[in-house]
Amino acid sequence: MPYQIEDKFVTAVASSALFDLTESDSVFRTRGEDEYRQYQREHETDVLNTGVAFPLIKRLLSMNGATAEDQPVEVVLLSRNDPDTGLRVFKSIEHYKLPISRAVFVAGRNPFQYMEAFNASLFLSGNPADVKEAVERGFPAGCIYPTDFIDDDEDHWI
Question: Which PANTHER family is this protein grouped with (predicted)?
Fold first, then answer.
């Protein structure tokens, strides 16, 4: 059932920042779009490894309470990937038990046009060029960089 996001802190995150899509990106760059789509379909049940933004997104979502009235944070995916990748990404979201249900997969087009539709306050990506483009379009954005920090799942401090 749909629910309102107008009064929430909505963070848009690139699917490639939430999950490690390095391997499939390599297929796209070396073998082309058709083989990339085939690769994604063949691996749609393979859970993706976590990406650079995963710990932050997980922590943001942990601020939500158990009731609909106590869920101030919403995370949406904005992705230049195609729907074949989307299926794999959502299977990984389900695997990691992330409460993310909204996404746009634009198959190479500009995903920033959906920022306002999702009421997004911030866009996060591991790609500096995407962050720069979002800022140039007037959207708050930040780049998440790889780190050696290990997020402790047992640490529930927010």
Answer: CYTOSOLIC 5'-NUCLEOTIDASE 1 FAMILY MEMBER, CYTOSOLIC 5'-NUCLEOTIDASE 1A
